[in-house]
Amino acid sequence: MAVRRIVYLGEPVLREQAGAIEEISDDVVALAQDLVETMLEADGLGLAAPQIGEARRVIAVRVVGEDREDEGDRPRVVVLINPEIVATSDEREEGTEGCLSLPTLQGQVERHVGVEVKAVGVDGEEIVVSAEGIVARALQHEIDHLDGIVFIDRAQPDSLVWLVPDEDEEDGYREEPTTVEEVVARFEKISKRRMARAAGKS
What we know:
The chain is α+β, with helices and mostly antiparallel strands. It has three helices and nine strands.
């Protein structure tokens, strides 16, 4: 298990169509473990394999709710291989989203309130997950990543804001409005620098 570098918007893998997993091999199990460790280290609600540089159809989502904790204080996490949304609620709602691949950015995204997802677990057994609320939103967000979609593609354009630290604000930050074009340009610059540093270390 390892904590991996999280890919930012601007790196090509985030826009790729992730490939289906044909066999639950040792490297797929290792990928799933790395995905969970990286997500928990970053305190995220979910993470998809493309976000750690692997264009494969694997996601990890934190389970929240009345029984969200398992043994000890470690959050419960579900790993889904080849996840597919097979049913959605008619009701949809807007909610605030951010992304570990677009840090300090938030926007309003409309999603289905409830979803049913069919997938395979790391043990090779079929899993069906029914979720509502924040878990349903996280599942839709992460499955989007497997198709090269990031949340700014679905967000209301005029809702995008940077969260800027500001000790004078009650929440400790202020919101600065931005545009999709500015977001893309900023992360392209950041990603080029990060990729260059990563290449220099290899």
